[in-house]
Automatic annotation (TrEMBL):
Belongs to the cytochrome P450 family. InterPro entries: Cyt_P450, Cyt_P450_B, Cyt_P450_CS, Cyt_P450_sf. It comes from the Bacteria. Keywords: Heme, Iron, Metal-binding, Monooxygenase, Oxidoreductase. SUPFAM superfamilies: Cytochrome P450. Gene3D superfamilies: Cytochrome P450. This is Cytochrome P450.
Amino acid sequence: MNGVTAHAGGVCEIDLSSPDVIADPFAAYGAAREHAPLARLLIPGMAPMWAVLRHGDARAMLNDPRFELTADTFAMRPEVSDEYRPYLRNMGEMEGAEHLRLRRLVAPAFTPRRAAAFRPRIEAVVAALLERLPEHAEDGAVDLMEHFARPLPIEVICELVDIPAADRPHWRAYGGVIAAGAGAGFADAVPAIIDSAKAAVAARRAEPGDDLVSDLVRAQAEDGDRLSDTEMVSLVWNIVLAGQTPTNLIANAVSELLAHPDQLAALRGDPGLMPGAVEELMRWCGHQLLAMPRFARQDAEIGGVAVGRGEPVTAAIAAANRDPRAFAEPDTLDVTRPRDGAQQLGFGHGPHFCLGASLARVQTQAALEALLLGHPALAPAGDGPDRAPDPGTWRLRSLPVML
């Protein structure tokens, strides 16, 4: 396959700039996975990186303290003034006791039970966006990405953080820029969101309510430990950044279900399948192709391949989630797939498992249920979905549909 070079008796090299790899990363990583357990990723302008391709090896690496997240993992930071720089450090780049302390303090606000309790508020946001969809239609078609999947997460975050109505237009605007992850407005949006997060934290300390920040304030008070204001503000703004996961998952899921009408019919016929279907859709078309890179603390071995100290290593989620060693018929989308088998790695694994996974799951379930059941005639429109040429993220630029 173009972009994938197999070396006899060794690992493959995968050129992430190759149009073939960008167009079908699942085929590229899958071919490399069946050749060897690891591959070398060739990334323009960067040093080569190891990619762990098989599910068992990837799961083990993500849980292995010999491979750590560092500041270099998050090297692509926006340029901000010294005033805002402390807030850019996030829990993801912390390890050991520092990470455990912060995770223990904030975990009670992100439990599956708390996510389920938030569901009625999430459903209200979903309903409001769906009600406005016809207003955006042109010749009967509407871009589901622009008018539903992309605005949904920031609307939910505003609800969960309890942002005052007067401030929400600013959060929507800046949240959209942050979700795009690039452009001249990104560096301006980050301090704006941090300032808004400071105000939200101060308000909830003074008057706790029924929202995520209040949960965090209560959790630390009950525990006897205390999140610093910097830690609290950093967490809130990183919720804005990381909370965009449902955007691409929802859009990818709708696109794939429309392309697999039998699976769409199964979901409509039995909405009780939805929780398992979201796991299957995350396995099949989750947005994250590669995990955030780790760095080897020492010389190590993965799947019989030597990895040198200091070398970057990522889990190729696109390969691991379609590994026949872990999943029966992995190249088939099956919303009825049993949930008692291997777990998809779209939310990661180990100590850095996605903190907001429960919220993302509930949000995606609520969005898909309301959209698919409320619009039984939903169908692709025009030339169909437009996929972004992004080697790291499986995402759409647009998703035109007929309602």
